[in-house]
Amino acid sequence: MDTMKKVLSFIFLGLLWFFSSPIYVLVNIFVYKRKVWGTLLFALLSPSTWVLTMNTYHKVSAFYEHAYRLTSRGELSTITGVELPVYQIVDKDLRGGRFNQKYTNRYTIEFKAQPDEAFYAKLDSVCLVDPHWSCGVEDEQIAYSYNRMWGKGMEAPEGQSPDEVLFVNLSITKGRRKAALSKGRW
């Protein structure tokens, strides 16, 4: 996965460089009436083009991580240790800082179909053995909650870096198709 992320990052940077340089060239040729070859050479070698490209890349990747990291079914299933039913995010509330600042994002997820009894039986059994899962009664319905923090000396879940300071909270109520997900940096 990490190799794929690097390849996609390289492709993104190349495309950004490819599209930002021609805009620079066109503005210089048609607006400022400068020579074509000098402008082309300067655009390809210009440190300002490189800085613009890197700055844009970092802003886009920081936004992606802030908004969408730890929200996929695969990532959540790996972290929680329970294969979650197929779901989609129906509402999101993005709050807090970017980059390495603290933030909390809240999502409402909706399962594509009502989870079956086998899923709830799995949650019942995992609540007995995993300290991050808890079960209780809420509004006369059984509620399941997963709470996990890692970083700053706390053990990271499988597939996550122990150097990151993140948390994930997932709340599922039996009989409801919607669930609540919170995640962020603490």
Q: How would you portray this structure in words?
A:
By secondary structure, the protein is of the alpha+beta class. The chain has two domains: 66 residues, no CATH class; 115 residues, no CATH class. The chain contains five helices and six strands, in the order H-H-H-H-E-E-H-E-E-E-E. The chain has a six-stranded antiparallel sheet. It is elongated and about 75 Å long.
Question: What do the pLDDT scores average to?
Answer: 81
CA-CA gap between termini: 25 Å
User: What is the molecular shape?
Assistant: elongated
Number-wise, the strands total 6
Measured by DSSP, the beta-strand proportion falls in 25-35%
Broad structural category: alpha+beta
Order of strands in the sheet with most strands: 1-2-6-5-4-3
Task: Kindly provide the radius of gyration, computed on alpha-carbon positions and rounded to a whole number of angstroms.
Answer: 23 Å
Main β sheet profile = 6 strands, antiparallel
What is the number of domains?
A: 2
- Please estimate the helix content: 40-55%
- Enumerate how many helices there are, as a single number: 5
Q: Which parts are unreliable, with pLDDT below 50 for 5 consecutive residues or more?
A: none
Order of helices and strands: HHHHEEHEEEE
